[in-house]
Specification:
483 residues; alpha+beta; Helix Hairpins; 3 domains; 6-stranded mixed sheet; 52% helix
C-alpha cells in the first residue's frame, strides 16, 4: 500500500466515522423533535375538543344540554377557537354509531376544501394521523366521547415545517462539518505522514547506493519518530556489516595474494635447483649437495608456511575453544626453558605473580608463547636479554614478553598482527625477518589465538629500549586441573 493510498484511506475512515456519528446524532435529534411535536399536537387536539364541542353546539343551535337555541354568534360552520390552535383545525360530531355526521366546524372560518380523510366509522378513544382529502396536508385526529362522538383534527403543517427545517439544518451542518473535517484531516494526516515521505525518500537513496544516508528523526517520542530511530539503528548496523564484509573480502584478497607470493619464492627456488640438477649443472658433488640442501630448506620453509596457514584457517572457523583450566604461569616457566635451549647465550628471566589460571586450549596457549619468544629471538641480536612476566588482577591475566632489541619496526603496532605483514625500514625487524625466512604469520597466529580465548594482544615500545608484547586473557577462578 502506497503512502498516498494509505492517507486516502485514513482520511476516508475519519470522514466516514464522523459522518456515521453525526447521522446517528441527527437521527436521535430528529426523533426527539418529532416526538415533541407529536405530543404538542396531541395536547392541542385535547384542547380543541372542548372548543369544537362548544362550536358544534352553537352551530346546531343547542344550549349545551341538547335543547334548541338557534345559531350562535360565530356563524354556521366556524368558531374562533383558542389562541394556540392552528388555522385549519377541523371538528365534526357524529352520532353514537360513529357513522352519521351531525355537523362540521373549522377554526376561524378556514376553508374546508381539504378536510382530513376520515374513516367511515369511528369509535371513541381513537388517536391517529391521516392525510387530507386533497393535497399533502396531514392531520392529527382525536375521537372523544360526550353525548355523541366529537372528532378533532389538528393540521400538522407547523410540525412538519419545523421537522423539515430541522432536517435541512442538520444536513447543512453535517455537510459543512464533514467538509471541514476532511480538509483538516487531510492537513493533519499530511503533516503526520511527512516523516514517512522522508523515510521513503531516504530508503530510495539508500537503495541507489548511498549507504551513509540517514532518516531525519522528528519527535522521537512519536510512533513515526521511533520508527525513524529504529530505521537509523538498522541502517547503521547494515552499513557496518557491509563495511566489515568489504574489509573481509579485501583482507581475503590480500591474504591470498600474500600467500601466493610467499609460496612462490620457495617454489621458484626448488624449481630452479631441480632444473639445475636435471640439466647436469650440479655435477660437482659439492654443488649437488648445496642444491639438494637448498631444495630441502625451501621445502621445509614452504611446509612451515602451509602449516601456519592451516593453523590460521582452523582459528578462523567458528568453533568453541577447548575448555580446560590452564596454569599460564607454568607455561611461562616452560617457555623460558625453551628460549634458553634455543639460544643459550641469551639471559631469560621469569617473574610470576602467583597462580594465574585461564580457561582455554593448553597447546594453543603454548604456541602463543612460543611464537612471541621466537619473534624476540629472531629479531634481536644474540645475547639480548629476554624478560617473561605474568601478572593478574581480579578479572584478567597478562603475559608480557619483553626484549631489549631495536624496538618495533612501525609506529602503528596493530599492523604487526596482520597476516604476511612486512615492514619497509631497512635494518629493522622486517629485513631480519626476511633473512630468517619468516612468513609474517607468527604474530597473526598469536592474535587469532588470543581472540579465540576472549582476549587480545598488544605491542609497544619500551622507554628504555626494546619491545613489549602483552597477551591479556580472562582470569579463571576454577580449581587448578590438569591442562
Amino acid at each position: 500500500m502506497t503512502g498516498r493510498s494509505l492517507r486516502t484511506r485514513l482520511i476516508g475512515t475519519l470522514v466516514l466515522l464522523a459522518a456515521g456519528g453525526m447521522l446517528v446524532l441527527a437521527g436521535i435529534t430528529y426523533l426527539s423533535q418529532r416526538s415533541y411535536e407529536n405530543r404538542r399536537v396531541d395536547d392541542q387536539t385535547a384542547t380543541a375538543q372542548r372548543a369544537v364541542d362548544r362550536a358544534l353546539d352553537e352551530k346546531l343551535g343547542l344550549d349545551g344540554r341538547g335543547d334548541p337555541k338557534g345559531p350562535g354568534p360565530g356563524g354556521p360552520g366556524t368558531f374562533a377557537g383558542d389562541a394556540d390552535l392552528p388555522a385549519g383545525t377541523y371538528g365534526q360530531r357524529r352520532a353514537r354509531d360513529g357513522r352519521t355526521i351531525e355537523g362540521e366546524v373549522t377554526v376561524d372560518g378556514s376553508s374546508t376544501s381539504a378536510p382530513p380523510r376520515l374513516p367511515d366509522t369511528l369509535r371513541a378513544g381513537q388517536l391517529f394521523t391521516t392525510g387530507a382529502v386533497r393535497g399533502d396536508t396531514r392531520y392529527r385526529v382525536r375521537v372523544a366521547q360526550t353525548d355523541a362522538l366529537v372528532v378533532v383534527a389538528v393540521p400538522l403543517t407547523g410540525a412538519d415545517r419545523a421537522l423539515r427545517r430541522l432536517l435541512e439544518q442538520e444536513a447543512a451542518v453535517i455537510a459543512v462539518v464533514l467538509l471541514l473535517l476532511g480538509a483538516l484531516g487531510a492537513v493533519l494526516v499530511r503533516l503526520e505522514f511527512r516523516p514517512l515521505d522522508r523515510i521513503a525518500t531516504t530508503a530510495d537513496a539508500i537503495a541507489a547506493g548511498e549507504l551513509d544516508r540517514r532518516v531525519e528523526v522528528a519527535g522521537p517520542g512519536t510512533e513515526v519518530g521511533r520508527l525513524g530511530v529504529a530505521l537509523n539503528n538498522m541502517l547503521a548496523r547494515l552499513e557496518q556489516a557491509f563495511a566489515e564484509t568489504k574489509a573481509s573480502e579485501e583482507r581475503l584478497r590480500r591474504f591470498l595474494s600474500d600467500a601466493a607470493h610467499e609460496l612462490r619464492t620457495p617454489l621458484v627456488s626448488i624449481r630452479g635447483y631441480a632444473e639445475l640438477v636435471r640439466m647436469g649443472g650440479a655435477s660437482d658433488p659439492a654443488r649437488m649437495a648445496t642444491a639438494l640442501r637448498r631444495i630441502e630448506d625451501e621445502s621445509a620453509r614452504m611446509g612451515t608456511i602451509v602449516e601456519d596457514l592451516l593453523v590460521l584457517a582452523r582459528l578462523d572457523e567458528i568453533r568453541a575453544v577447548e575448555q580446560t583450566v590452564v596454569d599460564v604461569a607454568a607455561l611461562l616457566e616452560d617457555a623460558a626453558a625453551d628460549a634458553e635451549a634455543m639460544d643459550p647465550t641469551r639471559p631469560v628471566s621469569v617473574d610470576v605473580d602467583g597462580d594465574a589460571l585461564v580457561l582455554g586450549d593448553n597447546d594453543a596457549l603454548r604456541q602463543v608463547l612460543a611464537n612471541l619468544i621466537r619473534n624476540a629471538v629472531v629479531h634481536t641480536p644474540a645475547g639480548t636479554p629476554l624478560e617473561l612476566t605474568c601478572e593478574h588482577d581480579a578479572a584478567h591475566v597478562r603475559l608480557h614478553v619483553r626484549d631489549h632489541g631495536p624496538g618495533l619496526p612501525t609506529d602503528r603496532p596493530a599492523e604487526l598482527f596482520e597476516r604476511f605483514w612486512r615492514g619497509q625500514d631497512d635494518g629493522s625487524r622486517a629485513r631480519e625477518a626476511d633473512a630468517a625466512g619468516g612468513a609474517g604469520l607468527g604474530l597473526s597466529i598469536v592474535a587469532a589465538i588470543a581472540r579465540a580465548h576472549g582476549g587480545r594482544v598488544q605491542a609497544s615500545d619500551e622507554p628504555g629500549g626494546g619491545a613489549r608484547f602483552t597477551v591479556t586473557l580472562p582470569l579463571c577462578t576454577l580449581p587448578l586441573a590438569a591442562g
